[in-house]
Amino acid sequence: MNRRVTRPALRAAAFGIAAALALSACSGGADGGSGSTASTAGGLEGEPAEGGVVQVLQNADYSYLDPAKGWDGGVNNFYRLVYRTLTTPASGSAEDPNEIVPDLATDTGTVSDDGLTWTFTLKDGLKFDNGDPITSAEVKFGVSRAWDPEIGIGSPYAKQVIDAPKDYQGPYVSGDLPTIETPDDTTIVFHLKAPFPDFPAVASQPNFAPFPVGSGAGDEFLNDIVASGPYTLDEYTPGSVINLVRNENWDPATDEVRTAKPDGWHFQLGLDPATIDERLLAGQGADVNAIAGNLQPATLARLQDPKYQDRLVDWPGVCTTYMGLNTTKKPLNDVKVRQAISYAVDKAAVQNGTGGTMLADIASTTIPQSVAGYKEFDLYPSEGNTGDVEKAKELLAEAGYADGFDMTLDMRTQPKLQAQAEAVQQSLARVGIKVTFNPIDTSKFYETIGTPKLQNDAAITGWCPDWASSASTVIPPLFDGRRITDKGNSNLGQIDDPAINSAIDDALAVTDPAAANEAWGNLDEQVLEEAPIVPLLVEKVVLLPGENVTGVYSSPGVATGGLDYTGVGLKDPSKG
């Protein structure tokens, strides 16, 4: 059940920032319950007016405009402005934002008695931005692109659950995919490898967006798109600007999720995070219509000023920040070494580098409390979460590394993320492990660490549930050794343990939700005994939208617990 926070409660939280900043780092998780809150103070939940342009201030460019390639919280949110899928997470303003609802399809699908076949019917009147109709053939073609070895590096679920010939490599290489049928223009039928009750959620993934048959090969969609959503691309200068304008062929009568009240969206990319915060605080000119990501830790103290309280947004987190340990690299192939690192990391220092208790809770599990299947445990405890140096040294000595060793950490070139990396570096130095950084541009980070041959010893990254109703979107992508791929790999530990793989199969086969949740929680503990990752934090969401912005709601399934773009708009389109 989604837990909501009343406006007075949130306002009280906002005025409590000063107290929060005074607290030292401590252990703890996100609030109980599933999903995320969707409430704010100061009328930010109001209905937007028609018109105007929303300004988005960003540090980094998006990973890919092509939804078969991109698959991270920020770009998934952007995709919902320009693409539609068979199903989609409900709007952040919905009674249950965790719910999967129809999008291109008339409903969330019909399953056969044996669970192996799912059938969807498309709505009438669907069109691309050029006016061409969207039929089942275009949906099938879009989905089949997920099997292309170069293009299909985004969401893995289609390839994992839909049956396909073993040598199938997508439509450009292998042609038609016989296990997806299109008996007529409005019907599409998927044949699965095994029953998968969450298939309606799979059909909401970005790579279920339709594409004109035969298009999109190679780099065709590197700087272009074929829109099916309410907006289409007007201008794109990589690393600098994205302008979206209305897609005149989008029919709002077919879309119950996107309000699309603004006339357009203007994304300013490549901005310094501190500059973004300064612009939001000042709120001048067009910045009254601006939104951005999380505020920087250095900005938090200034939010005590009462003038910011009516537009301050404070939501619990839904994503786990963790450090992946590459189990194929020596000496990280030794479980005692990985366990030593798990003991040695000063999570309190990582939390402080992230902004303290205002911006993050300390994590000891892979599954966050927001996801069904969470089990409370801590296999590597320490006083104050500052790390158990003696236990770490003991394990390193047992493994034959009493004097420590050198390792390379992949990290992103952003201030907060650098602070996290530095906290880890200093933690491990206490036990003789010398950490060298490999800085990677944010827009290329996931592509790099998701390519095993480019991966170094470790990487600090995060994982967000693709839907919050099951940990099937957490444990298998991160730890199933059979899912390790040459590109787009999410198993950063590259762990391939037969016992874990078998336990994943067993959990996926459980049809009773309560029993399945128990199985996932137990499996989380079983995996962390092998220590392929070090859970670090569950990061919270603290935003400061412009004073003219409204329609502000959280989306646990698309925006990683952050702002859902589908309802955002302006109070007065003439301002700015």
UniProtKB/TrEMBL annotation:
- List the Pfam families hit by this protein, alphabetically: SBP_bac_5 (PF00496)
Name the Gene Ontology biological process terms.
Answer: peptide transport
A Gene Ontology term for the protein's cellular component:
ATP-binding cassette (ABC) transporter complex
- Keywords of the record: Signal
Q: Where is the Solute-binding protein family domain?
A: 99-475
Q: Which GO terms describe its molecular function?
A: peptide transmembrane transporter activity
Q: Which SUPFAM superfamilies match?
A: Periplasmic binding protein-like II
Signal sequence segment: 1-30
Q: What is this protein called?
A: Peptide/nickel transport system substrate-binding protein
Organism of derivation:
Krasilnikoviella flava
Highest classification ranks of the organism: Bacteria, Bacillati, Actinomycetota, Actinomycetes, Micrococcales
